[in-house]
Amino acid sequence: MTTKPISRDVHELKAPSHLWQALAWPLSVILLLLLLACMSATAYHWQAIDRYAGRFSALTDSLLAANDLLLNLERADVSRPEQTLSLRRFEALDAQTAASDLPGAARAQAAEVLSTAAERWLATSETLAQEPAGRRDLREAEARYRLALSTELGETKSRLMEAETSSREYGGLSLLLAGILLILGTYMGRQSRLVARPSSEVPPGAPSARSLAQMAQAQAGIERLLQMTIDSVDAGIAIFDAFDQIVFCNEAYRAFTQLPPALSRPGTSINDISGFFYEQYPESRAGLSLAAAVAARRHDLRAGKPALEWQRGERWFLLTDCALPDGSVVSLWTDITAVKHAQSVLEQRSELLEIALRASSDGLWDWNVEANTNYLSPRWKALLGYEEHEIEDSASLWQATIHPEDRDSVARQVEAHLDAKAAFDTEYRMQTKAGEWRWFHVRGEVVRHIDGRPRRMAGFTQDIHERKAQALEIEQMRAMLNEVIEAINGGIARFDADERLVFCNRRFGELYGFPPELMRPGTSGQALVENFFDRQYPDAPPAVR
Q1: Would you call 349 exposed, middle or buried from its count of C-beta atoms within 10 A (0-12, 13-18, 19+)?
Q2: For 28-37, 78-87, 363-372, which range has the lowest pLDDT when averaged over its residues?
Q3: What is the Cα–Cα distance from 239 to 432, expressed in whole angstroms?
Q4: Nearest by Cα to 423 from 133, 117, 60, 151
Q5: Beta bridge mates, 426
Q6: Tens of pLDDT, residues 529-545
Q7: CA geometry: angle at 441 spanning 440 and 443, to 5°?
Q8: What distance in Å separates the CA atoms of residue 183 and residue 187, rounded to the nearest whole number?
Q9: 15 and 206 in contact (C-beta within 8 Å)?
């Protein structure tokens, strides 16, 4: 007996609500756009990390070149061609730094001043070059450059850290959005699952076959767009279901893990994937056996542990797992090789920077104005007689070391510098660990936001106690000598080689009747003679005068 075929139409097993039909597709598009925006932001911050790491390295090289330049210029056993070569090397390295897109006006001006001082030093004779004035100008120029460059170094390091933090945040947000999109796509697929049902059994009000076909076509388009978007992500993404079996993974995940096709198919257990990985890279087991490492990885998948850093050859990956409400887990593999390289450069250059700063005998301080936190270098602490671990880095401690008589003056100068009214270049006393009050020369530069608000202030502290003590001693001796000279009954005056007055006592002016304005240093001897004859012998011929 033959039966008549029953005509079949394609209908939905469970028709979605009108609200779902209205919101599902726009929501998917919005989430896709947000995911693409987060991916772009992550890529931007990766590039920023590379840029800031390169700039930090270039700035450190410039600082070392400035130190070498000063040493070579002041050494008598270094020839002029070698000194000139040191200057040209410094100028070339600073020019590379100036080519960056980051601001560096203060450093550029200081570099020009240092180059000019070095050129003047090289242009003078060896005798003149050893004069205290020339040496002082050269050292002041180098100190100014070192201050400006160190301030820029601190700002570059701060920006590098901010870029690294932002890249991790945007990467995590991308992971969350990808997980939501996958869940949404899966749910939409279930809602739009089509089955063949006899037309006689179609319930009243059910969607027509054409509308169902259009919905299925739109769903397929969304799924293809979602797949293309997830595959274009630089990070590796894998979805595991509630039974720890893989549901989906993108091309980056396959490339990062180097999984064979058989292990990247849906239904593969996390145990099989981990076992393959740990067999290929046993150094990633952290000393565990293969079975223990596999079990630990399955436990960590849902344990909510912090992100893990895994090394595979020369590449580094950040592994982040995010559990979703439906029991599935999104696993994100991010290539952080660039970050690790930047961190390595930062560590190496920081060591060189610390060596350079120690060699300069100056102590570095860096004050975060907004957070009111302070960094005090080991050299700064050593200037006060402390080991690095003996005192903490705090703004309040720095202020507490200042002499009570100098504290208000220093506070006013800092405030004036923050308000962009004056440079911060001062001398004041600080108390050492032994309780001694010593004199220090302190310079500082402020780093501002785009709107002009102060962000950080950094600078150097130099011990000038011996120099200050010598200056005070000389001043005291000069005062005593003046008292002796003034006590002599006879008139005493000294003139320089150009016959200009250097000093004279009060008795000298009384004897000759000179007015006070002519008894000042710099007055010519001819002016004194003419004044004397004009008053005492106005009729004397010029030849006598």
Answers
A1: buried
A2: 28-37
A3: 61
A4: 151
A5: 442
A6: 888 888 877 777 766 65
A7: 135
A8: 6
A9: yes
